């Protein structure tokens, strides 16, 4: 009995030992699991996240630009770029040959591609951007290893060079340059967002695991006040006129005087923003209507006359006899045709574009009043139009001018203004003496359709409405009886003024160079538009009545039909 | 007389003890684990399908955008003018306005 007990006891002890060892082993296992899953939980989660967690930037799409009727002027287009991952290419020779055939590469390009692919790296620069759909389909059919397509956003201007100086362009770095693209770059660009997703080894998203860290703000869409039909007509006629007169360049700007909306704004020569990189002369990028100042010449006489009329110093039928010239200090100031016009009413002073008459008006005004009205009409400051690089022109400080300077300024020499300033000023005459701020963006629309309309902005009252009407009638007389006959449109009262300005070169006026301009509005007593035409240095004509005025008339004729304005007479 | 014997046989066949309870628990655990795995797998599979559909959606939207841009290019006034010239249409020389009362 005792022997059996001893045997059982040692067996029990061995079993207990095995159990103990088993428990210890199990305890170690539990401790290890506890250590990994509880204590070092964050570390292993982080390791797993590094493998599967992707933080991605969601790039905002640039806002598009439309004309007033919703036709796209600047659009976005997603086009793929072709990339190769060299260390994933099995057969470099075969891949090179096939790609070269599809992309129509030269032998040299093919060899360079082969060299790049032989590097066994993870990355090489894209082989080609903006692949066509035919090229994409052909390459996909080849089913080549290591060949991938990367979607890229490109800016496309469907109307080509239409309104290019207004639009500007998007450069290779995705930044807007010049025009609307430059001025509204931040609004158009939007801002990127960031999302967190879980992806597998091949980069495919695992389930619907996207978590938004910061929301992407898509770029805003802009609707301009520009009417593309008017813009197209204006650009076509402007180009024809510039070439016809062998001029250096030309500009036309058209504005609604009641609201300040800019209907058309054209410069020639221009450029195609789709191929901005091909432009050699960077001057073409500038919108000279807002940025470049020029001595306006006789078109400025309407401003001087407006001031004198508004102050009651003269009336339209105030008459005086003027000679061919007038002496101011030691300087003789002549009429452009170097002949006297004799007895003239103020209306005839404008009709004949009499410099001597204007000097007389200026002397009645005096410096203080003249400068007062210069600033009232907005000269010497920006109009505030929503375009980049706006200039302020050049007006000599009142304390620095002489009587001669004052005299010449009355007929637009010795003062430099921008075309935008002049149109805004003449718009005040057309709009019963009330000046409106010019603007070019009509409304802003978000991606989800929310619209914000830009309201017209009243700047100030410059003239008494009756005075504005009187001056309009005087300007009609310029077109009917004066130098602006070619700007007239049969059946309508067109108000306007010509200007043939001398061009200063190195401080001296060049006798062989002039800038012809015409500014006006129609119908004169209920105007639908104000327009300035400017032809720079025409070679085969001396006077604006032959260069700028006819173009004004042609565009005015078109506009009156386009806006379906019935004839007045 | 016989009912009592049959009852006992039934009871003895289906007696539930600690061992059978453990067995049932293990089976249930295994079943739940399997269900979890199946469900997870289903989610992952659907997730891949969803990712693929999203990718297809992006491709279709890109294609749509391409067509819109091409439509805009074809409607550009320069293109329209070329077509008008091919159709040999004439410019309107004069416009007459009629007064309607």
Q: Please identify which CATH superfamily of the largest domain in chain A we are dealing with.
A: DD-peptidase/beta-lactamase superfamily
Structural class of chain A: alpha+beta
Q: Quickly give the CATH architecture of the largest domain in chain A.
A: 3-Layer(aba) Sandwich
Widest beta sheet: strand line-up of chain A: 4-3-2-9-17-18
The total count of strands of chain A amounts to 22
Tell me which protein chains meet in the greatest interface and how many residues each side has.
A-B, 25 and 22 residues
* Secondary structure tally: strands of chain B: 0
- Structural class computed from helices and strand pairing of chain B: mainly alpha
Descriptive report:
The complex is a heterodimer of chains A (569) and B (101). Chain A has helices at residues 2-39, 41-52, 92-102, 107-117, 133-142, 164-167, 179-183, 185-189, 228-244, 288-291, 301-310, 346-351, 355-376, 403-410, 419-430, 465-481, 544-562; strands at 53-58, 65-66, 72-84, 147-156, 169-170, 176-177, 193-198, 211-214, 221-224, 249-255, 262-268, 319-322, 325-328, 331-334, 342-345, 434-436, 441-445, 451-453, 458-461, 495-505, 508-522, 529-536. Chain A is an alpha+beta fold and 569 residues long. Chain A has a six-stranded mixed beta sheet, with no helix packed on it. In chain A, β5 and β6 form a beta hairpin. Chain A starts with a helix and ends in a 7-residue tail after the last helix. Chain B has one domain (15-86). The mean pLDDT of chain B is 81. By secondary structure, chain B is mostly helical. Chain B contains three helices and no strands. Chain B starts with a helix and ends in a 15-residue tail after the last helix. Chain B has helices spanning 3-13, 18-75, 77-86. The interface between A and B is medium-sized, with 25 and 22 residues.
């Amino acid at each position: 009995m005792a022997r059996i007990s001893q045997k059982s006891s040692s067996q029990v002890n061995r079993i207990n030992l095995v159990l103990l060892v088993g428990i210890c082993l199990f305890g170690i296992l539990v401790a290890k699991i506890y250590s990994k899953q509880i204590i070092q939980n964050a570390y292993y989660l982080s390791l797993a996240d590094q493998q599967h967690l992707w933080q991605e930037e969601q790039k905002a799409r640039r806002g598009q630009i439309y004309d007033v009727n919703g036709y796209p002027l600047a659009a976005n287009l997603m086009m793929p770029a072709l990339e190769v991952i060299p260390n994933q290419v099995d057969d470099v020779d075969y891949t090179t040959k096939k790609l070269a055939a599809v992309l129509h590469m030269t032998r040299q390009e093919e060899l360079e591609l082969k060299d790049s692919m032989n590097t066994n790296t993870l990355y090489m620069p894209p082989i080609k951007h903006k692949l066509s759909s035919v090229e994409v389909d052909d390459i996909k059919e080849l089913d080549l290893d290591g060949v991938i397509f990367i979607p890229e956003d490109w800016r496309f201007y469907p109307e080509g060079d239409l309104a290019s100086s207004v639009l500007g362009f998007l450069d290779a770095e995705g930044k807007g340059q010049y025009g609307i693209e430059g001025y509204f770059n931040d609004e158009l660009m939007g801002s990127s967002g960031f999302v967190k997703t879980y992806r597998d080894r091949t980069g495919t998203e695992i389930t619907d695991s996207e978590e938004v860290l910061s929301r992407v703000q898509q770029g805003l869409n802009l609707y301009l006040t520009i009417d593309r039909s008017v813009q197209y007509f204006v650009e076509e006629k402007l180009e024809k006129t510039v070439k016809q007169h062998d001029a250096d360049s030309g500009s036309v700007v058209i504005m609604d005087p009641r609201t300040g909306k800019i209907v058309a704004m054209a410069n020639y020569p221009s450029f195609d923003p789709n191929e901005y990189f091909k432009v050699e002369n960077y001057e073409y990028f500038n919108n000279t209507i807002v940025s470049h100042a020029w001595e306006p010449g006789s078109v400025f006489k309407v401003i001087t006359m407006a001031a004198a009329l508004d102050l009651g110093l003269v009336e339209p039928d105030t008459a005086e006899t003027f000679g061919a010239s007038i002496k101011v200090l030691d300087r003789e100031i002549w009429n452009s045709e170097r002949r006297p016009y004799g007895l003239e009413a103020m209306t005839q002073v404008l009709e004949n574009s009499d410099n001597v008459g204007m000097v007389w008006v200026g002397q009645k005004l005096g410096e203080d009043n003249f400068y007062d009205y210069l600033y009232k009409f907005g000269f010497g400051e920006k109009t505030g139009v929503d375009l980049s690089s706006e200039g302020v022109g050049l007006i000599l400080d009142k304390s620095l001018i002489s009587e001669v300077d004052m005299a010449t300024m009355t007929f637009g020499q010795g003062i430099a203004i921008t075309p935008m300033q002049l149109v805004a000023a003449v718009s005040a005459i057309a709009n019963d003496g009330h000046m409106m701020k010019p603007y070019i963006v009509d409304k802003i629309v978000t991606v989800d359709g929310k619209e914000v309309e830009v309201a017209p902005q009243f700047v100030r009252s410059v003239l008494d409405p009756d005075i504005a009407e009187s001056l309009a009638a005087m300007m009609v007389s310029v077109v009917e009886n004066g130098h602006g006959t070619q700007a007239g449109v049969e059946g309508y009262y067109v108000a306007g003024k010509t200007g043939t300005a001398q061009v200063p070169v190195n401080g001296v006026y060049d006798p062989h160079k002039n800038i012809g301009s015409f500014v006006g509005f129609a119908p004169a007593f209920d105007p639908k538009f104000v327009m300035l035409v400017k032809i720079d240095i025409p070679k085969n004509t001396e006077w604006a009545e032959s260069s700028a005025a006819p173009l004004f008339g042609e565009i005015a004729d078109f506009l009156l039909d386009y806006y379906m304005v019935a004839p007045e007479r | 007389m016989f009912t009592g014997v049959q009852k006992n046989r039934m009871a003895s066949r289906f007696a539930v003890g600690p061992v059978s309870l453990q067995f049932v628990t293990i089976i249930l655990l295994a079943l739940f684990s399997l269900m979890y795995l199946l469900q997870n797998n289903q989610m992952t599979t659907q997730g891949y399908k969803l990712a693929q559909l999203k990718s297809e959606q992006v491709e279709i939207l890109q294609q749509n955008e391409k067509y819109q841009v091409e439509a805009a290019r074809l409607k550009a006034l320069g293109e329209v003018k070329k077509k008008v010239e091919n159709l040999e249409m004439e410019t309107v020389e004069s416009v007459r306005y009629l007064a309607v009362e």
